[in-house]
Amino acid sequence: MQFTVLTPLDSPVALTHSGDQLYLAYSGEEPYVRENPNNEDEPLELLMRDRISIAPLLVHHDAAAHYALSNGYLLEMSYLEELSPLDQLELENLEWRIALPAQTDRQRVCQVEPLGLPFEEELQGDQRVALFKFPRLQAEESRLFGWKARLEVRGIKYLLTPADVEDCSPLPAEFAQKYLVDNDELAMHQPIVQAAAREAIGTETNILRKILKIRNYVYDQLSYALRPRIDTPDVVLDRGVGSCGEYVGVLLALSRLNGIACRTVGRYKCPPYPERRGVPQQPDYNHVWLEFYVPGYGWLPMESNPDDVVERGPYPTRFFMGLPWYHVEMAKGIRFETTNYRDQGIRLGDLALNHVRFTILDELPAIAPQI
């Protein structure tokens, strides 16, 4: 096998080609409004109907980097904070930081501009962050501020086998100091977390098999549910239910205890409806996943809890070392958003409401082969 790819749409059912161009057929359902003449009280009904589409599959294989890119889209994403404190607060020298989209193998940042207020750009490691400064925030003061970005995003799928990483080099010391420690309330000292870390991998020593066994173990132990807050991994393991952020916390803790460097990535997914061109769309909720580091190969993505996972398996691996086009990468290993008043117990949700919008502008052309 030379490479694998992620399809841009769900439920591919057939593959064909015309010359060198591949085409996929997709089958699914879509909602529609039907007028029922026999129901005078409520003549309009919301029903489902079959939908079949045929679209080209665009593939760019980078053998040296061990990945393949597939179809992508030009997006406009806006992140806006509406400052509206719940309490009568007056804050001096407030600094508000919001991560900006990252430049990656599958994501190109074409443009970023401020919304509402100007910002200073700073780097946290290799991550870009927008810094908004408020010399004095007075009670009942309202502001709008944030950023708007234009992005090119594609699906990516890495292809590595356990044999490829059997003799990989040791983890660099600076990675161990940063990505093997409990620096985000991971409860790695708690007995239930340490026991889970041991049970998850058994006697496995190969890094790819270890991380996959940890992922499957977490999927076995937890059921997904939206939660109003993020609890620590010991609480989540004991409860057996978690949100995507809590899945990530457990995955981080168990992986780091087993010597696998990993970090959180987020923060949003564009609603995956490429047919809705030019229409602003709002995600239902935020989303985080993680990356794990393989020495000699770099950071590889892993979804925290794919939407279609069936409890107790079998668990698909298409989002293991792969990301679909609609994930927007930012805040790798750092907080997506924070203020200099966080340590004083002032929560972001007590200060502002966020507004997130995506607009799919166009489909990206195929990547020209390098000569």
Automatic annotation (TrEMBL):
UniProt-listed PANTHER family: BLR5614 PROTEIN-RELATED (PTHR33490), SLL1049 PROTEIN (PTHR33490:SF6)
Top-level taxon in the UniProt lineage: Bacteria
Name of this chain's protein: Transglutaminase domain protein
Record domain Transglutaminase-like: where: 236-306
A Pfam family assignment: Transglut_core
